[in-house]
Amino acid sequence: MAHVISHTEVLNCGAEDAWECCKHSDKVLPDLLPEYFAKSEILEGHGGPGTVRVLHFGPAIPQAGAAKERLDTVDDATKTLTYTVVEGDPRYTNFTGEVKFAPTGENQTEATWTGHYDPVGDAPPPEHIKNISVLMFKTFEKAILAKKTVTHTETLAATPDAIWSAVKRENSILPAALPHIFESCTFVEGHGEVGSIRVCKMGSAIPNDQELVERVHLFDDASKTVGYTVIKGDPRFKHVSAVMQYAPGPTEGTTTATWTAHFVPVAEGVTMENKFVIAVWKALEAAAQA
Hints:
With 290 residues, this protein is of the alpha+beta class.
């Protein structure tokens, strides 16, 4: 019978925010806790079930080396992630882990890590792994408390229905209208529904040949609202998520477009500009008018 080790930590932040940080821990942990997590590599996938990643540990974890993990479930409804250690500490076999976040009050979350394992010989319980889970949870809390918000609203000269129709076609609209910003936009998983993964190869206006990888976390036809979380993108930010909504405008035949982004900057003073959002809206407006 497998052995079990567990730890629960109360975090001073919302469960949704903690869950988003967990799903993007590959970026958050090396940024904020490099002495424990030197770097993370994604070998397969985009953060969903089946993703294989390697966590390289820092000098604060002596002789730990690296651990290869496979994500088994990533459940937004229950805010639960489970994984299997493919290669790790040789003192334990059949190691699986579960991370779960449950709201316990306003801006308060109960974060629980549970490990199941078989010890090799007389290996002691993996207390060091449990202690790392404590650091991980507090790092998520730190990132969330550093989160900043920016919003922008614009009136577009087209109806909400026409704009929303253009939003659904933006993978073809944006590279054609804004090739200097978007070289290409392609769904590599899904077709735009919640859970879909989109890869945007950025154009010459974006330095260093960046590639933007986004996960759709909200798509609602009724309210004409779409939300996404950046899996891979601008290195100036540890975390970025945004929501765009298209509502009836101040006059007939117009749309009020609202963009709200939440981000955690790598350094103080780094902010998020709205110029690319405005460019996207103007391209959607032109397509809607056409």
